[in-house]
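Hi L.,

You mentioned the student needs an example of a multi-chain input paired with its predicted structure. This one should do, with 652 residues in total across all chains.
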Amino acid sequence: MLDPLIESRALIGEWDGEGRGWTVRDWVPGPAGTVGLSLSGGVELEIDVAAPTTFVGLWVDAGRDGQPSLEALSTIAILLGDERTTALLELRRGGARQLPSDPRLDAARVRRLDRGANRSEPGVAPMLARHALAADGGTEQGASDLVVALSLLDAAAAGFQIDGLDLDMRVEAMARAGADRFVEVWSPDAPIDVTALSAAVHEIDPLLTDDRRRALRTIVDGRARQHPAGSGIVAAAATASPPRRSAAVPHSAPLSRLRPVDVATLPASLGVAEAAARDTRDAEAEVRIPGRPDLTERLWARAFDTDGVILAAAPLLDDDGDAVARLLVPPSRLAGASFDVTDRPADARPSPGLRATVDAIAHGRAATRAERLRDPKETYSRWGRSVVAWRDAGDEDRSHLARLYAEDGNRSGRIPKPLLADPVVELGG
Amino acid sequence: MIEEAQAFLSGRGRAYAERLVARQRLSDTCVDDVVQETLIAVHRAAEAGTDIDNVEAFATSVIKRRVTDLLRGTIRRAEVPFERRTDDGDDRRFEPIDPVDPAAAPELDLMATVQTASLRTALGSSLRGASMLPAAGALAVLAHVDPNDPAAPADDCPQPLGGATPTEAAAWVGLFYAGRRGWWADDDTPAIRQRRSRWARAQTEALRAVAADHGLDPGGSHA
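Structure written out for the whole complex:
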């Protein structure tokens, strides 16, 4: 019998009557939030981004008859082990309990410390954690084709090493799609860790057709010859392409300070990763999304005062190929104004606390990428921003934890190896 | 469906959101956002003509998803088909050019009150459907006529020639900043002038409506 993929000791199971399903929890999510992984049978796994082998939660859908499907049963048995699965599914209305430890795990009890602080404390199997993290990277808003390709290859390579979870079809599809896309979009100057990519390609080799294998190998082996083993990440900063998308205003525009624009509530399908505002006069601001004339008269820009009261709203119009809105704002409030772009201008803006939370998680995720790339300066700086944003959100605990992460380095072994896509994302590709 | 969702979200649905938010040790302030986002999702489903046979189950599922999304660092909303509104709107009757009567214009009086913020908020929530552009224009008018902090329009914002009232001039500012840039031409036609006139009245009506809702007399004196 396989060992369970989640070996955390202190799991709390609960029947959620309103949500019609079962939850299993351990640690609360850390300052970089979570990534989720949908598994067979309506099972969803959440892991912690900053400490990926830390188990956060599991959701199991109950069907209309109040029972899990056979696929769900199989999935949670692989994740938790048989005894915990049985104990979980016995829970009904109002029921919550600590799930028993799997007898095979009891031999090595560990003392609970801070998350990730004890190398011997078991959690989520590292390959399952890497599969979830990499798969999530491929779905990030604004991810370039190269990032998606590398994320798919990475997720496939990790997923292929997980037994029992019925991931075969998904992993095969990821491997093929990742290979096809990578062959199509790679460039010689892309900042790719050739050694890690080669290992991933080797891992998924059985899943590839001859054509794909040959094409991938030609690229990887060619890069390896150019950059012999041990060179690791190709530092391509000098030759790397500029970020794919930038909200900078055209050079012809008068100089003024660029100001952030919140695009967080826009539907992902619109593909708007960023926008920028600038003051054009003492009572006017301009919000611009460069190179997106397709968005004109579909989206609206709004300005708010420091209390969150709306000051102005205008549709984005075509301005020489950019989507631009001009907002008339009382002069004394322009300096403190904040801006957003929305497809539903009548909908209230999320509260400052919620926006601070989302910002804190975004900074935390950027910090974890810098950590994986072993860049201490960026790590410290980004965790620092997360510390401040969590404080703004009123969450001192996560703010404190983010500070600990900033100062702690990797003494606990919390930080995994870089994802294949990390260097590319870091250089704005 | 909306009423049912509102009732649920003010009672058991809200309690469920509070539980989920507390379970993840997130700030209490997130509860209002989760409930609001859930109501928006119900609105969108209704507008899209989605048939929901169990509103509570739908809302519960959205609450759960919103809390999860928050932990994943996203608050993006689902996309709905976008409606483009034509300049002409639905009303195609011939209308004479009709400057707004200053005595009936509420904005100058409104700006003297401390209720400006709530008026702006009310206009903000009118930014939907046919009232979208008039409400945006009305917000620009409020900024422009603020007696304490007036926002002067840009140089390229058209202004009426001599003889126009301040209210008419303010209406043009509203039209311009609501995005109606093509409504001025060197050779203004009667059709263009009618269109401007119609939408200027719509802006004024938007202001008048929120003024009335806030107990202010659109004629210029407080109730």
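You could point out the following to them. The mean pLDDT of chain B is 78. The radius of gyration of chain B is 22 Å.

Best wishes,
N.
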